[in-house]
Structure formats: structure tokens, C-alpha cells
Amino acid sequence: MDWIVILHAGIASGTVLLYATVGEVLTERSGILNLGVEGMMLMGAMGAYWMVVNYGNPWLGLLVAMLLAGLLALLHGLVSIHLQADQVVSGLSLTFLATGLSLVFGEGLSKAGAVALLPRITIPLLSQIPLIGPIMFTNQSIMVYLGYLLAPAVWYFINYTRPGMHLKAVGEYPAAADTMGVNVYRVRYQYTFIGGMLAGLAGATISLAVSPGWFSHLTTSGQGWIAIGLTIFAQWDPLRAAGGSFAFGALRRLILDLQGPTTLLGLRNPFFYNPYWGFFLKMIPYAFTIVVLAVGSREAVRKRLGAPAALGIPYQRGQRGL
Amino acid sequence: MKFAVEMRGITKRFPGVIANDQVDFDLRPGEIHALLGENGAGKSTLMNVLAGLYQAEDGEIYIHDRPVTLKTPRDAIDNGVGMVHQHFMLVPSLSVTENILLGLDQPSFFLRLPEYHQQIALLEERFGLKVAPEAKIWQLSVGEQQRVEILKMLYRGADVLIMDEPTAVLAPSEVDELFDTLRSMTEQGKSIIFISHKLHEVMTISDRITVLRKGKKVGELVTKETSRGELAESMVGRRVLFSVAKSIKEHGAAKLMINDVHAVNDRGVKALNGVSLNVHEGEIVGIAGVAGNGQSELAEVITGLRSCISGTVQVDECQISNRSPKCAIDAQLAHIPMDRTGVGTAPSMNITDNLIMKSYRSKPVSKGWSIDQRESVKFAQQLKDDYQIIAPSLDTHVRLLSGGNLQRLILARETTSDPQVLLAVHPTRGLDVGAIEGVHRLLLEQRDAGAAILLVSEELDELLSLCDRVAVIYEGEIMGIVDESEADQIGLMMTGQRYPLEDIFSEGLDAS
Amino acid sequence: MQAESVKRRGIPVRIFTEPRIDVPKWLPITVSVGAIVLALLASTLVLRFAGESHPFRAYSSIAKELFGSWGGISDILVQATPLILVGLACSVAFSMRLWNIGAEGQFFIGAFAASAIVLTPIVPPDAPRWVFLPVMLLAGFIGGALWGFVPGFLKAKFNINEVITTLMLNYIAVEWNNYFIFGVWSEGGFQMSPRFPKAAWLPRLADYAREIPQFSGITIHLGLLIGPIAAIIVWYIIYRSRWGYEIRLAGDNPKAARYAGTPIVRNIILAMMLSGGLAGIAGMAQIGGVVRRLQGSISPGYGFTGIIIAWLAKLNPFVVIIVSILFGTLTLAGREIGRAGLSMLIQGIILFALIASEFLLRYRVRIERV
């Protein structure tokens, strides 16, 4: 097993989670819970791939992926912000709708053959850094590098800018934000849209970069749900979200690769000789999420960290807040 | 400029009530003008009209002698009027500076907080409002949070400040600090409207006083030329006698025994520090104190909703502390909680389901594993009639009930089983005068029926008129227990003074 | 209660919304039916986009196919059978406002546990039907309940978000099943277990075609009976029993439930176990009545559909049956069209229409000229 290869691939597959998780962090920070990430990712993956198959331009594909997923998120926004529907149900409905849409309009795409993909780049100087260089900065997709920039940018945005401050206020105590003249509804729509666009990007990252192609619902294989889990694990912090995404991505890669070699740490590799044991390996990321969440929750309680106070609660002017 | 604010003939109606009826009010530049009245007299409504939250049906408002229309809080603040509400509108996870900057056009994108921290520190210095600009709101005490609210208004250039019952949440030392701040603000040309129902505070801080009663203006007085008695009379509308029909009968045995209880609050800070208190059969004992001195924690420990570190709570022979809420219920302890909608009722369940909350385990409502529908409806109908809960039907969701009806529902549920001990926490808060009387009557009835009643309240008048004895709690300790004749000591004890003072004297003698 | 008004520039009307105090009895059903009709109309547009040139003709041919024969109706009911049980499972959890997103996993583990009875074998293969079926039912229930216990326990004791734990347990359940399908019980290297002995099949009406010829081709199986029975039991538990009262109280206001002295920690765990158990029975019914072996593709997302069914039925167990039949119809209709995503897509549109229509139940909307 080549650790560098595993981590290199782990970073790439973690990037998918990173976009989706950071998007969900932004949405939830405004007080809107969107469980439709999986559907929006599928839509993004399908939309991007469809554009490339039909027009040959992956950049246009990215744009379309963001728009489609963003529009779907706005639908969830409308239903949960103005119509004050239950956000869990609305998010699940969005999953149905978006999955259905992407499957219907993605028919035939799986036989498309080779298409133009997003470029892979090696960064001149950074790739020379021992260990980190070959893992992080060599022959990675452009989306990976954008991901490196996205997480700290969003972190800075949330903590050190005026709109970021308004975002936090709206998610924590919408009534207070409203009386101070912040438009709670507009802010919530904005970040629901942005969260959707990032989920779309995550989907496009799969279909145009990480594992190119359209494999109907297997394209995302549940990563949208994992992003929702990571959002809680990250305690709504984009930097922690990035860390969690890369760790999760690497873990998934490691598990795939664990079954390859005949020996493991000098011993007979049980996973090679008992291929069915691999299913237990596949459980690890999910079990890991639960364990991490358990530990994280306790830490959150201790440090008084937690979900944005108004998460999932529709805001209505004139009702005393919280 | 003659007046900073002038309101003429303000009328504001709510469905079924006239909250303000042709009210005139004026505020001179640089003065503190108190708006005095009982709960529900229309003080807050009048000021919400001035702050742009409500629109009056009738009347004119002039600010600095110019007529204005105030449709939103934004309009009011643009005209220099800012209101500090009783419930703070602060985002807990943001810093002081961020809360002040919220919603403003500057800074436009990058926050550049250090710069603004400095600006705000300067503003704080000018008015003597001390609070660290970098601190997060959740780290601040209630008094500090209030200062942030005031700073928010000052930063927006308010020169008329409306303070809505600002002392209700403050400890006595904080009240003094607040008063110093208010004075320093008027010295610098700000004008202040001070809403309160507490006579002594109004006498201390104000220059002039306007008294409202049942939505009407009933007097405008110069503070120096009036007295507490005169104010009380015009506020209540009759001479105030500090007594009601009390029971003459002797109290029975001790029913509720609280023995050296220590407990912490939600933040893990010590909230109860060795509280001991007995309540006897047929007796009402009051707990007086400024909010946040351990009253709610005490109530929670008694009802089993909070565990205590040490000490015991007993009803008769039965030890109920550190067990479960069910234990307390089984020991026939009834509880009228402070938070009617958040704790006392299930808002989206119907009246029947809310009325059987304490009796669904016992016959006749319970039948084996099930709840007997016919019996529970019968039970609920009986209570609805007896306690005059007004609602279209028993199937009405209780979130649609008015405050008074909701409280009647809770009272009905809690008192129908003739409890041994009744714990009532702020049972009249937010109710109108009629409903308050009903609550008082019911408490007295329960007392006469032999219940031991512990009444937590911030209304001193209420405590004095209902209770046989009043215990004063301060920072989680009982400062002393007095009866009517020693009532003048209560105020002192609320500031942390112990009573009776013998212990201190004897210590003093020993030392000399 | 204050009326809110929205002013639109240029349009000489004002739209007022105000909360409804009471909802007329006829309103919910009217609004729901209206929403479904609107959604089906909107779906025709999407169908056109997706390349179906005559959407209405498609609708009518599907309707003829499904409702035109006993066979079609029986297929719908077979499709609805697992949905009813999963919908009931979710209703139980949601009554306490526990977001059990894990009915899917509980379904799989229920199916696994029932299979284990047959394949291990725990009950000897030549045992009679009246031994097999009750034991399988019980195993399905226990398996699902166990899968519900884990998130329930974590939620009750450590306040860990159940949405995530139940979701993750879904994936773990699938991998667990895969291990047995691919490995332990694989039949000749195929990804499925051997077929169960006949005694472990839930009897179908078609099995009696020799005696009653009308039954030939009718695939309705005994599982369909379990649904309504479970609905009655769930209804009794939630709306008539003391425990159900505690559950509903905690669902509406957890603080009030604590105040009323109910044992919340225990109830969370029990509610999740009952919920999981019902989903487990659904899994058992599906493999015992339809596929008759354990394999990978036993659920096209029943667990998730169940969430929506429970919500649409307002957690009412009897309405769950009706809504399940509606969803069974939709799924089959999608299958008739023969395109995988279409039924999901139309379900999604109907769902959004229904969610949006809820607003009309909570608010009265008035439009006035200015």
C-alpha cells in the first residue's frame, strides 16, 4: 500500500465532501436545515456532466451545476422560509424531487464515453515540499485547489465581515437581527441558495473530476448525507468542516485499498483472503461518524458550543423571538 | 426647543381593550420623566408607539417640536428615539461591538473590529457604561447586557432613551450603577423616559412623573413635590392599605421542609447556598427577591426538576429532593410554573390533554394501561366550568388561549386535587387586573383549605398582602424571614442585608 | 394576533395573512386533494420535458393498467404493504418528535433477522408454517427494535442528534446484509440467499387459486393484514394509552413532559425501539411475502418514503394506510412508465405541493383591493 497514493486520492474525494459540508454550514448558520444535499449533489453531478456531453465545456458545466442545485435549494427555501413548513420533511422531499429529476434527465448519460474533464494541475513550488507536496499539490484537480481556498475564505467571511456577522445573528436570534434592520428572510434565502450552489459544485466535482462519469444514483452514493453528519461534527465551523471532509475522504480511500495487498503490516492481510470481510470495513466510516459525533456532542456541551440557536425554526415577525 | 418629545391624544386599541385612551405625554430636554402605573396600565404600549413598534389609531407625536410619523423602529431611531426593552435583543454568540454594529451601514464589508472596539470604548467612557467591547454577550451579566442595549441606542445617535422597566432584572448594586449612568446621560443633554411600577425607584431617579391607570393618564407630578403615598393612591385609584383578610387560625404542622439546600444553575455556578425554610399547613410563605437570585433554581429543586448538591426537601415524611418530578407529584406537591407556555402546558395539545397532565396516572382518568376517554372529558369539562376557562371547546389547542385563561387552566389542574403543598412561581406575572384577583383569591382559598403555599414573586405588594411570612432571597441565601410588622426590612434584605441583625451585633461586640 | 400585510408595488391589492384560530373540518382534505391535482398537472409539464409526448394519455393508460383489473389493484396493495408498516414506524417516532430517518436500516435488519431464523437455521427447515411465521415476525420486530435502540439510547443518554445516527446506521445495516448475501448465505456466488422453504412464505391469495379461481394472479399476501392490525395497535398505543399520552406530551413540549413527571429517557428509548420494530416487521413481511429470500434490492427507499407518509398522514395511523396506498400507486405508476426516476420525480412534486398547501391550513389568506 502506498500511503501517498491513498492520501492523494483521499484529498480528492474529501474535496467533494468539503464543498457540500461548507455549503450546509452556511445554510444552517442562517437557521435553515436543508437535508436535500444528496439530491442537490446528484443534480449538480448530472447537470455538469450533461453540459460537458452536449457542449464540451466543463466550466459551463460547473456553472450549470451550481445554478440547478441553487434553484432547488431556493424551492426548499421558499417552502421553509415563507411557508414555514417543517424543514426536515421539506428537505427529504427535495431529495426525492432532485434525485428524480437527475435520474430522468440523466438517462443515457452513462453511455456518453470520454468527455472533457476539469484540468489537473501541479503547483510549481508547493509540490516540492516533502510529503505534503506530492499529496496535496501534485496532479490534483483544479477543484481541489479551489477547495483549499474556499474553507478559510468562508471562515474569514463568517467571522470577520459584516455580512458574516449578519448571517450569524440571523441564525442565532432572528428577532434581534430583525429589530436592528437586518432582513432575516433575505439573508436566509441568500445562504440557502449559496448552500445549494456549493452542493451542486460538490456533485460536479464528482462527475467532472474525482470519479468522472454519470452512474445514476450511485454517482454520489450517500455522500450528501455524510456531509450533513460532518456539518454537525464540524460544529458549524468551515475549517473543522474541511478537516473532517479530508479525514473522511482519506478513510474511505484507505478502506478501499486495504483489501488489495496480500500482506498488511507484515502479516497476512485478512481482508485479502476473506473478501467478504470488506463489508465490515465499509461500515467503519459510518460507525466512525457516530463515534465522532458522540465525542463531539459531549465536547460541545462542555464548551457551550452548539447548533445555531434558531436552526430549523421558521421566523415570523411579531412573535417574540426564541 | 421646549419639548424633546410631545405626544398628544394618543389612542391605541387592541382587540377588546383600549390600551391607551387619549393620553398626553411630554418630555423636556435633559430630564428623566418617569412613566408610572400598574401592570397593564398601558405604559409599555404608549412607549412602543413612540418607538415605532405600534401605530396609534389617533393622536400626534412631535419630536423636537416637529411632527413625525413613526412606522418602524428604524424611523424612531432616525428621529433620535431609542428604546431599551425588557427582553434584551442581543445575539449571545456575538461580541458587544458586533451587537452594536448589527444592521448598520458602516463598516461596509470588512469588520475591522479593533477600530470599532476603540470607538465604543470612547462612547462607554463618555457615559460611564463599563463593559468590555470584545466580550461575547453570553459571558456578560444581565446588568452588562443592559448597558450594551443602551450603548446600541447611543451609538445610533439617540438623544431620547426609553427604558422599559430597566430595574426588573437588576441586582440592587446594579440599579445604583444604572441610575448613575442615567444621570450622567441627562447631564450631557440626553432625555430619558423611565417606565416603572416601583414607587421608590421613581422617587429616586425622576424629575417628573406621569401616572397611567387603565390606559388613561391620571396625573402628572413633579417628583420633589409629591410623596409615595400620593403616587400610590393615584396609581391604584384608592388609598392603599397594606393588608387583606388574613386567616386568624393557627398554622398547622410543617408540610414543606427545605433543609440546607445547595445547588448550581445551568451554567454550573452556585445558585443556592444553604437555603432552609419550612412552610406550614394553612400558611402562605412568600419568597421575595430581585430576579436571578436563585428563585427559579429553588423552585426547580423543590419540584425535582433540578438536582441539588446537598440538603433535602421533604413533603411531610416523604423525601423528594434529588429524586424525580414524579416523586414530588406523588407527594401531592402542586406547581404553578413561572413559564406557562414553555413548561406549564403543551401548546399544540388540547385543553383536555393539558388538564389531565397530573392526573392521567390515577383513577378515574386512568384505566389500566389506557386513559379513559369519557372520564377524562368529564374531568376536563368539570374543571373548565369550575374555573371558567373560556374556550370554544375542550378540543381547542391551548396555544390559542389568552394568558389569563392559560393560567386558569394551570391553576385548575394544580389545585383540583387539593394538594398538600402548592408552589406558585410568579403566578400573576403578565396578567390583567381581573385575572390577578382571581389568582389571589384561589391562593387564599387553597390556604384556607389547609395547603402549605410557597409563593415566589417580585411584586412586593402582592407578597405583603397575601403572605403570612415573607422570606427574602439574595444570591442564593435566605436573608431573613419577616412578617407584616417588619415589612420595611424587606427592601434592605433584598440588597443583601441580613435580618434580624442580632448575629452581626454580637459578632461586633465580641470583636471589641 | 396581528395580521401581516404584504404590499406589492404597482399591484392594487394587498395580501393579508393571518393565523387561523380553528380549521374547518372540510378544509384539510380539500386542500390536500387540490394540491395533488395541481401537482399532477405540473408533472405533465415535466413529463413533456422528459420526452413523454402525451402525458395525459400516459396518465390514463397507467390508471387503466392499475385500476382496471384486480391484478393491478392487488399489485398496488402489495406495494403499499411495507409502506404502511414503515409509515407507522415513523409515526411512532415522530409523535415524540424523534426524527427516525433510519427506518430503512431497521427494515433491512428486520429482514435479516427474519432470514436468520430460516437460514441459520434457528427453526428447523421442516417446521410447519404456524411455527415459522410467528418466530420470523418476532425476529423481525426484535431486529428492527435493536436497530432503533442504538440511536434511541444515544439520544436519551447523551443527547446525540438522532438524524445522523439513524442515517449512518442505515448504511451499516446495508453493509451488514451485504456481508451475509455475498458471503455467508450466498447461493452459488450470487448476491442472494437461497430461497426460503415454503413454510416460511407468507401465504398469498394466489396460492389458493385452485380452490377459488378468482384469486389466480392476486399477489396480496398475509403481510397486508399485518398493516391494519399494526395500525389499530399503534393508534391505541399513541392515542389511548397512558404511555402514548406521555409520548405525545414529550413530542409537543419536552419540558412539560418533564414537569408532568414522565420518564423521558426511558420513553425515548422505548419509542425508538417500537418504531424500529415496526420497520423491522415491514422488512420481514417484504422478504416473507414477496422476495422469499434475502437479497440486496429489497427496498427502493421504503424507509424514506415512510417518513413522508407519516408526515402527510399527520401521524394518524389510519390515514397512514390511505397515504401508503397512494404512494404504492405512484411507485407502480412510475414502474409502468418504465423510467426509474420518474415516479420519484412525481412524488417529489406532489410532496412539495402538499407541504406548500399546509400553509393554507395554518393561515387565512385574504386579498383586498387598496
Oligomerization category of the chains in this entry: heterotrimer
Percent in strands of chain C: under 5%
**Low-confidence segments of chain C:** 1-8
Structural class of chain A: mainly alpha
Strand content of chain A: under 5%
Which H/E pattern describes the elements of chain A?
HHHHEHEHHHHHHEEHH
Largest sheet descriptor of chain C: 3 strands, antiparallel
Question: Percent helix among the residues of chain C?
Answer: 55-70%
Which descriptor suits the 3D outline of chain C? globular
**Structural class by helix and strand composition of chain C:** mainly alpha
Largest interface (CB within 8 Å) is between: A-C, 50 and 48 residues
Helix content of chain A: 55-70%
Q: Count the helices of chain C. How many?
A: 13
Distance between the termini of chain C: 22 Å
Number of helices of chain A: 13
Number of strands of chain A: 4
Structure in words:
Chain A is mostly helical. Chain A has helices at residues 3-29, 37-55, 58-82, 87-105, 132-136, 142-160, 162-172, 174-179, 184-210, 223-233, 238-258, 270-273, 278-303; strands spanning 120-121, 140-141, 263-264, 267-268. Chain A has a two-stranded antiparallel ribbon. A two-stranded antiparallel sheet of chain A has the order 3-4. In chain A, a hairpin with a 2-residue loop joins strand 3 and strand 4 (267-268). In chain A, helix 3 packs antiparallel against helix 9 (184-210). Chain A is globular. The mean pLDDT of chain A is 87. Chain B is 33% helix and 25% strand. Chain B is an alpha/beta fold and 512 residues long. In chain B, the strands form five sheets. Chain B has a six-stranded mixed β-sheet with strand order 6-7-8-3-9-10, with helices on both faces. A six-stranded mixed β-sheet of chain B has the order 16-19-20-13-21-22, sandwiched between helices. In chain C, 68% of the residues lie in helices and 5% in strands. The longest helix of chain C is centred in the middle third of the chain and has 30 residues, at 129-158. The radius of gyration of chain C is 23 Å and the shape is globular. The two termini of chain C are 22 Å apart. Classes of the chains: A mainly alpha (322), B alpha/beta (512), C mainly alpha (370). At the A-C interface, helix 3, helix 4, helix 10 and helix 13 of A face helix 6, helix 11 and helix 13 of C.
